[in-house]
Structures are given as structure tokens and as C-alpha cells.
Amino acid sequence: MKIFRPDPKAWQPIRTLLQSGLPQAMLATGESGSLLGGYLDLLQAAQLCFAPTEAGFACGDCRSCKLLAEAAHPDLWVVSAEPGKAIAIDTLRQGMEWIQYTPQVSSTRWLRIDHAEDMTLAAANAILKTLEEPPARAHVLLYSEQASRLLPTIRSRLQRIPLPVMEMAESRQWLQQQGIDADHSAALLRQLGNRPARALELWEAGWVEQRREWLRSLLDLPGQGVVAALKLAEQWSKTKDLLLIRELVLGLIADCMRLQQGLLDRITDLDYLNELQRMAPDVSAEALQAALDDWLQLPVALAQNSNGVMVMEKLLLDWLTLWPRRISHGIQN
Ligand SMILES: [Zn+2]
User: Fold this and answer.
1) pLDDT at 271 over 90
2) Does residue 113 sit in helix, strand or coil?
3) How far is the CA of 62 from the centre of ligand 1 (A)?
4) Ligand 1 center to 46 CA (angstroms)
């Protein structure tokens, strides 16, 4: 993550923990893509550092800090699931073996498991013993969006890291420090929730244009009909950003629901407000709800069905039937 300097007050509880000695088995909870991941980066850097500062940060100069900056630290291992996938037992077995060895550079080995709730049951059981009796010079940190999905036997062995609550204003300010103007910073957080790190990543990947193109496709589809839907299904089933498209569709459906309920002030897709206002009355609340459920289930459908094109075809053909008036008359504008 880029330049992240937390507020000293927010860092204080972690500093205290560092000074008194970090627990060996830790749990941090927070939304992925928020700035909390930055806190964990700082924490692991400080623990691995040869000479942390008085304030509890890594020095930035020692061999450990330099290796971290090059993403080549032999005593750090970060395990993470790909979006929509589980963390498999083999991955964790390797990690459990790795952590048994003596650290090579720093005074400890640091294993971090991001999206820990995505561990399979077998994977979770495989790390249980290590959490129970961690090797002498080792730290294991589980980072989870949904700690409630962790096995109780795992949760009970972990000590929670006191991460601060992130304010929206702080996230907006951070995005602006990364060079994104105020309007776009606000729009990104509105569209993606309080997840500035994720917002920055998407911004750099051309999110604004990409999002516009996806939205355009969705809004135009009812006027274009079945052949266009099948073509789009084929195209989208090949993209690695399918879960992102899902987020976009979910946002669009939620906006239609808000419009139907007159909740104008909560609309997230302001760019398309006029168009949505024309479309929203055409669709029934029940049909919207059904579409919402189907798109929410997309990761499950993809996991159960090896034919991704078929999954997308069903979703997009259903999307057409949401707007029967638009199919028969085409878009009027
Ligand atoms: Zn250092």
C-alpha cells in the first residue's frame, strides 16, 4: 500500500501492544480494501524491523526494512485467496511447515492469512495445532472480514489486534493524497464503500472508463435483445473482473430499489440518475429482489458450474426479462 501514516492516537493501542510484546496468534478484523490493511503492514514491518522507532514504527533503513520494501523478506509469508476462491489446505500446509524454521533475517517469522474466513474446513483444521502451540520465534496473524465465519476453536486461540474505526473523511483525504481529485475521491467511496485502498487500485486500472462501459452495456441491453445478451455473456464470462461486474450490477439494482422507494438521497450512481429514473418504474419490486438474489449467488453458481458462459447467459437473459417494456419498444432516448 502507498504512503500510509496513521493518526498517532489511532496507532497508540498498537504501539502499546508492540512494546509489551505481541501475542503470537493474532486476529485482525476489518473490511478488505479499507486502510486497515495498511495498519497491518506497518505492524508487521515494526515487528520485523531491527530498530523500531520510539513511536512504534519500522525504521525504514535496516536490512529487514529494505527487504520488505523490495517485497523480498524471507521471514514474511502472506497467504491470500483469489476473489471468490477458498484458501486450500495445501497452501496452508506449506505455510505451517515454513513457520517451523528459524527466522533468516529478523527475530521472528511472520505468517499472515488474509481473507482468513475463506479457509476451507480442512485448511482451518490444519492450522489449529500451530495456533495452539506456535513455534518459539513465530507470529501468525489472521485478517478477516467476517470473523464470525471462522471456526470457534480458531477464534478462541487468537488475540484481537486493536484496529481503529476508519472514518469516511479520513479515507477521502487519503485518496486525495494519492493524487485523486476531491470529486472523484468522493464518487469512488460512494460507489465502492469505505474501501479507499481498493478504490485506488481500481482507479489505477482505469475504473472510471471501465465502469462506464459496463454500465452502458447493462442499461442498453434491454433495448438490444437476446443476441446481444448472449454475446455479452460470452464476453463477460472471460473477464477476470466478473466479481467486480457483479458489484456494479448489485449497486444498480440497489439504486433501482431506492428509486422505487423514493430514497433519492441514497443513490450511488448519480451519473445515471435520469436514465434509472425512467427505468425503475418499469420493473416490479419482486423481480428486482429475485435479480438481486441471483447476482448475489454468482460466486456460488460459478463454483458449482464449470461452464461460466452458461451462468452469465442465464443472468443476462433474466436481466432482459426485468425490463419487458424496454425489450418491446426499445430505448426511447
Ligand atoms: Zn528497520
Assistant:
1) no
2) strand
3) 4
4) 7
- Give the per-residue pLDDT at 329: 46
| Tens of pLDDT, residues 21-69 | 999 999 999 888 888 888 999 999 999 999 999 999 999 999 999 999 9
Please tell me the distance between residue 14's alpha carbon and the centre of ligand 1 in angstroms.
Answer: 17
Tell how far the Cα of 56 is from the centroid of ligand 1, in angstroms: 11
How do the domains of the chain map onto residue ranges?
8-166, 168-204, 205-329
Q: In the CATH hierarchy, which top-level class contains the domain 205-329?
A: mainly alpha
Q: Do domains 8-166 and 205-329 have the same CATH topology?
A: no
β-pairing, 25-29 vs 109-113, is unpaired
CATH of 8-166, one of 1.10.150.530, 3.40.1030.10, 3.40.50.300, 3.90.1570.10: 3.40.50.300
What is the residue whose three cell numbers read 445515471?
A: 272
The answer to whether the Cα torsion of 106, 108, 109, 112 is positive or negative is negative
> Are the CB atoms for 229 and 313 separated by under 8 Å?
yes
- Farthest-apart Cα atoms in the chain, separation: 71
Ligand 1 centre distance from Cα of residue 21 (Å): 17
Ligand 1: centre distance to CA 54 (Å): 12
C-alpha span between 174 and 34 (Å, rounded): 11
Residue 153 or 266, more confident? 153
Lowest-pLDDT range of 130-139, 278-287, 288-297: 278-287
- From the CA of 36, how far away is ligand 1's center (Å)? 21
CB environment 123-136: b (16+ within 10 A), e (fewer): bbebbeebbeebbe
